[in-house]
Amino acid sequence: MADQAFVTLATNDNYARGAMVLGKSLRNHNTSKKLVALIAPQMSEPCKAVLKRIYDEVREVDVLDSGDTAHLAMMKRPDLGVTFTKLRCWTLTHYSKCVFMDADTLVLSNIDELFNREELSAAPDPGWPDCFNSGVFVFRPSLETYGKLLQHCTDHGSFDGGDQGVLNSFFNDWSTADISKHLPFIYNLSSIAIYTYLPAFKQYGGNAKVVHFLGKTKPWSYTYDPTSRQITGSAHDATTHPTFLLDWWSLYSRTVVPMLQEQHGDQPF
Amino acid sequence: MADQAFVTLATNDNYARGAMVLGKSLRNHNTSKKLVALIAPQMSEPCKAVLKRIYDEVREVDVLDSGDTAHLAMMKRPDLGVTFTKLRCWTLTHYSKCVFMDADTLVLSNIDELFNREELSAAPDPGWPDCFNSGVFVFRPSLETYGKLLQHCTDHGSFDGGDQGVLNSFFNDWSTADISKHLPFIYNLSSIAIYTYLPAFKQYGGNAKVVHFLGKTKPWSYTYDPTSRQITGSAHDATTHPTFLLDWWSLYSRTVVPMLQEQHGDQPF
Ligand SMILES: O=c1ccn([C@@H]2O[C@H](COP(=O)(O)OP(=O)(O)O)[C@@H](O)[C@H]2O)c(=O)[nH]1
Ligand SMILES: O=c1ccn([C@@H]2O[C@H](COP(=O)(O)OP(=O)(O)O)[C@@H](O)[C@H]2O)c(=O)[nH]1
Ligand SMILES: [Mn+2]
Ligand SMILES: [Mn+2]
């Protein structure tokens, strides 16, 4: 059987920091799967180098220069740039099954059991719970599916301007067809859900396996004081549970920063 | 086959106004089912009289004076008063199947097809989407289930202090067992969901069948000018879609207010 892999995407140095923490969190929980990062060519060399130390495979993808069907689709829908890049994960056909994870997710325990699920498995989106959230999903790489997805993008666009809209309208029976394709919400616990129904978070949140820092403010938007181990600055407009944010920063400062420093040498970053 | 019924609950005159609008909205969309309102004894006579004109059955329930198992459960968990009253719907054993609807819901089209579903069917809660929202659910009246529910309440309480917490921990395989028990979200469209993921609302909200004015501010908390057909006052802290709020008020002022006026005679209300 071909390999199985966790896949993420980072088009710039900021999301790369997220991908580094995500990769480290998967390794720390002893995943037996391969780790793949899709990156854009403009990423800095030090970031690429660090990603290569954490990930088994770091693959450059660029819809703009590709000259293939993605390129054609892109010409018609320039608004969907990052979306097309995310869909590229379906081209990883040297893996039999994959789990895509946004670069703004953090793994809190081993989640290799996700590979028992079929395409397309995902957790509900708290905003509109008949949609799945596209921050964590199980899929099967396939050039046929990839082609159909691009065609769907070109024909119908995305109702939310991003990959989540496209994927939900493509896999449009997710909410009605098969309960096994509903990942438990604790595999994609959106930080905002914590505040909308706090008693449920208190009841079930202790079992969280993946936290997803969705929304405008990402963990790397904050600053952190490693000595006092506290988030500094505007942490209080945070829509994120402070504990998860500290988990992210603790992993980042302990394990990722030293690698970045090595790569940068004397240069500041 | 015994009858089937839509069931709601109103313990006071405010929620009674909601129940009147809900009942009217079911009638306007030509339901073929019976309509049942559970009420508390302290409700005013005019409200009772109007409910009796709209509903087939208006039944007084009072956990405090009942002297039965609900009474005993209540003594141990006085915090769960309204919750126990809602669970009373399982005692309506002269119906074979029922759909419970909160008094703060409004029906936008015929929804009799809900009776094709089994206990316990409900729509996901947008706050924590592995929980169902207990504002709309399909159930089978049964004294056995009723007894077990009360016992569960007494033993475990409610993680959110209300009926939703109890029902979710009792029917705790809802999120994993059977997709047919997941009602589409458009059967319980929470007004707050509209703003958390607006593109999805724009995409799917046009098919809404039931809107649920959940949260602290209810339609009857606003004031309405029937001449200009506008919500007046603090409508702008509204977490509710203005169109749905106007739908509620339009139905209330056109069909419910005249009935209340008749009942009140010269008395102001
Ligand atoms: O400029 C960008 C924007 C997004 N992404 C990738 O696309 C995912 C989805 O975007 P984001 O997480 O910002 O969306 P949200 O989850 O907040 O809706 C990210 O996690 C990254 O993996 C990226 O690489 N570069
Ligand atoms: O004082 C009360 C509170 C609640 N209810 C009933 O219980 C339901 C659930 O309460 P509510 O709708 O206020 O909760 P929410 O949906 O906002 O969470 C209401 O719709 C009513 O049917 C009632 O009759 N009297
Ligand atoms: Mn994300
Ligand atoms: Mn309600």
Account of the 3D structure:
The structure is a homodimer of 269-residue chains. With 269 residues, chain A is α/β, with parallel strands linked by helices. In chain A, 36% of the residues lie in helices and 19% in strands. Chain A is built from nine helices and eleven strands. Chain A has helices spanning 13-28, 45-54, 69-76, 81-87, 143-156, 163-170, 193-196, 198-204, 242-264; strands spanning 3-10, 34-39, 57-60, 95-101, 105-107, 121-124, 132-139, 189-190, 210-212, 223-225, 230-232. A six-stranded mixed sheet of chain A has the order 3-2-1-4-7-6, sandwiched between helices. In chain A, strand 1, helix 1 and strand 2 form a beta-alpha-beta unit. In chain A, helix 1 (13-28) crosses helix 9. The longest helix of chain A has 23 residues, at 242-264. Chain A is globular and about 50 Å long. Chain A starts with a strand and ends in a 5-residue tail after the last helix. The mean pLDDT of chain A is 91. Chain A binds chain B through residues 123-131, 159-161, 165, 169, 175-179, 182, 184-186, 192-193, 196-197, 199-204, and chain B through 123-131, 159-161, 165, 175-179, 182, 184-186, 192-193, 196-197, 199-204. The site of one uridine-5'-diphosphate has 14 residues of chain A, from strand 1 and helix 4.
